[in-house]
Amino acid sequence: MQEKPGVRKKSQQVRNPMKTDGTGGFLSGKGDFLPDKDEFSGRDKTLPDKDEFSGRSKILPWTDSNSETGTEAGIKVYGSGRPVRLFAAGLHGEEWKDTTGILEKIRPPKTGTLVLIPLVSRGEYISTLDPRYYPGLGKEVLRAVEELKPEIYIELHSYAAENFEKLAGKDRINRAGVPAYSVLEAGVLLGSVSPHIRRKYFPKEALCLSFEIEKGRAESREFAARMLEVLKEMETRDEFIEHLKKEFPGQAKKAVEDYRRFYGEI
What we know:
single chain, alpha/beta, nine-stranded mixed sheet, globular
């Protein structure tokens, strides 16, 4: 397929700030995983100049893969400037088998910044609804959120078919304390991210979504990949809501109503 003119396919490599880069230098003495602003002509350190990075994108570890927490987070950064979109997959247990590959294949956005964490952890399964998750297995996700302050944050999860009702059943609010997922297509479910990260780390105007993909189902992975290709070009929460209303009006209505009941006004 011929590339569209003007679409840059460069990526920023982000290194472990606690380790040398192979030449003996550290990325930042303060532990920041993106350079200080004065290194990029006074711009915000999370939004480097577009010509500052070149070459192939690589997933490089932030933490030791054999650490006690089991975290294996690596990061890719495409593009520059606002808005910043942060996508995370492989968040716990064996979910990486169905989700990590989707982020590894995603293409750079036409505008703004796309940050990818394809594999957070292959360690034990701790639900993101558990208050221990983000300070533990998900600590690198929190770090990225705090540093980048993304306008759009997406988590990619997977589920076994027999657990469909646990996620999409009407009684989920009573069982799990959060609204049920909306059913989109090909077994892909749409909901909000855990309130443990949504309430504390994002302003209300941010778009924070959780997708659940049916394990072992190719059509589910393909549909989720198409949804992410749409989301990587979105600039605001309201823009995505309008898209959802057009493509999935019933699900959009439920999502907005659930959000208002759970979090308050949009």
